Amino acid sequence: MTAKLNVVPFVSVDSMMKLVLTVGVEKFLTELAGYIEEDFLRWESFDKTPRIASHSSEGVIELMPTSDGKMYGFKYVNGHPKNTREGLQTVTAFGVLADVGSGYPMLLTEMTILTALRTGATSALAAKYLAPEGARTMAIIGNGAQSEFQALAFKSLLGIDKLRLYDLDGSASRKCAKNLAGMGFDITICSSGHEAVEGAEIITTVTADKQYATILTDNMVGSGVHINAVGGDCPGKTELHRDILLRSDIFVEYPPQTRIEGEIQQLAADHPVTELWQVMTDKAAGRKDAKQITLFDSVGFATEDFSALRYVRDQLRATGLYEELDLLADPDEPRDLFGMLLRAEQAVAKPQMAT
Ligand SMILES: NC(=O)c1ccc[n+]([C@@H]2O[C@H](COP(=O)([O-])OP(=O)(O)OC[C@H]3O[C@@H](n4cnc5c(N)ncnc54)[C@H](O)[C@@H]3O)[C@@H](O)[C@H]2O)c1
Questions:
Q1: In a domain, 268, yes or no
Q2: What parts of the sequence cross the membrane (predicted)?
Q3: pLDDT tens digits, residue range 33-65?
């Protein structure tokens, strides 16, 4: 990698796709989950804040910063459920990793694909601690951009090999099934959410709608099930009926953010929840028995993106899959920024005088 601090490695969408395919999607998901877990295990060393959201009637734009004291990371991400109707992604993202010592960025990368990977990896990681033992079947309700990444993460980390897909739009389910064909899944496309959850030990909800939706009603959730609720991640945007929450043991990433954005926005501000890092560090119990309903109320937290940025940075030297970006001004004399500009003007002016 470049030794020049002013030149920042940049991972474009093209490089990210090559990186994921070079490593292999399932290996990438497994290794990424390892980085995410490593950072959950040192949760207390992170600077944490609920993400900074700017809401509009159409969607939300968010900044997600965190630091472990050595490195600082942030992600820019949007959520616009109406975008797919206009041929655009619901969620797009990019992010930066920086050196705390100098404040200089060390990596700029696309994070639209990386977000889907880290969300799948985080969901599967949480399920490793919470899902019923030996689970093989997962229902996925909402078969859009995130869905295949969820499926593959659960296959890699938990051995899920039976999928029951449902989407309001049947073409999304057919797309998901087609993309996952030949990847070791037995896939059933269902015609309702009720049908999708039949026999599923894990239920993933990953729909996009800017409203209080009821993707799961109380009668759809039997005892012993693990719910991976991914799509409810904004104020006024939830997927589960409140009664399900009252019957579940609820696990969250960072309570101050989840209370604003997660399914638990439907509950009292002091409703008990368990933080995932406490389960991972044996400070709190995860699944206690086979009858318990566990709910991972996922909203996506900044440390997960930090882990993803760390992981990508660690792959660059071996793969060379990045470009060098002339991002930071680098005058010969640090205080002579204006002089650098003047010298550039002379350099630009000279060829013009020659013509
Ligand atoms: N928790 C996290 O960390 C995290 C990370 C990324 C995305 N998300 C959220 O996940 C959701 C899905 O993201 P995406 O990129 O896959 O979106 P997408 O628009 O590509 O797909 C969403 C799918 O949900 C379907 N859908 C909408 N309402 C439905 C309903 N009532 N029943 C069944 N299907 C329905 C749509 O037809 C669409 O196919 C979004 O809400 C996004 O904000 C959460």
A1: yes
A2: none
A3: 999 999 999 999 999 999 999 999 999 999 999
Number of domains in the chain: 2
Asked if 146 and 70 sit in the same domain, the reply is no
Which of 112, 146, 164 has most ligand 1 atoms within 8 Å of its beta carbon, as the pocket-test mutant? Answer: 146
- Active site (annotated) includes residue 161: no
- CB of 150 closer than 6 A to ligand 1? no
Tell which atom from ligand 1 comes closest to the C-alpha of 169. 37
CB 263 within 8 A of CB 294: no
Catalytic member of 39, 233, 297, 305: 233
* CATH classification of the domain holding 76: 3.30.1780.10
CA distance 164 to 140: 6
Would you say the C-alpha torsion 13, 153, 84, 108 has a positive or negative sign?
negative
**Is residue 143 situated within a structural domain?**
yes
**Span from the CA of 58 to the centroid of ligand 1 (angstroms):** 15
Q: What is the mean pLDDT of residues 122-135?
A: 98
* Distance separating alpha carbons of residues 147 and 163, to the nearest angstrom: 11
Domain of 163: which CATH number? Answer: 3.40.50.720
Whether the model clears a pTM of 0.90, i.e. scores above it, the answer is yes
